[in-house]
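We emphasize that the prediction below concerns an isolated chain of 180 residues; any contacts that depend on oligomerization or on bound cofactors are therefore not represented. The input was used exactly as deposited, without trimming of termini.
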Amino acid sequence: MSYKGTSKLSRDEWEEIRASRSVGVGLSELSKKYGISQTMIVHKAREENWGSKPKEGLSDVIREMATERLIGLKDSDSSEKAERLLDLAVDRAANLLKTHQREWSDHRLKFGIPSEYEDARNAKITAEMLILRQKGERIAWGLDEGAAKPVIEIERVGVVKRPDFKPQEFKPELREFRLE
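Result of the prediction step, given as a token string:
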């Protein structure tokens, strides 16, 4: 269900608004720029589940818009043309994956199971280069997500509470130290 009046703006303009909101641009600034009410922006955001926090979903919006531009897809394109363009993009991605498979087959044929140290070292270096390059290509083509985000774990270290401990029983021992 679309909020009344949201059709006043094109899809690209709404994507710009969404991207601007994701990086923290205020509602009042956007409503003035696009000539719509703040309420309309809020309703559209809820309708399309933009997320409540700035920056949430920004990479998805950018990736989607970049992909559409890369394959030449526009809002005004017919569904038939859009389908052809998407098929072309899928074919290109499939060809990339076939190339990657062929490269690994070539690597296997060239090195097999190396018995000499030099051959094993060269096979390892070549395999590592293939992994890095192919991973980068898959990310660049949008086939894989970027590198995993680092996870930060905070471990709280403190005094272990004992059920039999009573604070009034605790008497710190004071020691006097002298430097001589």
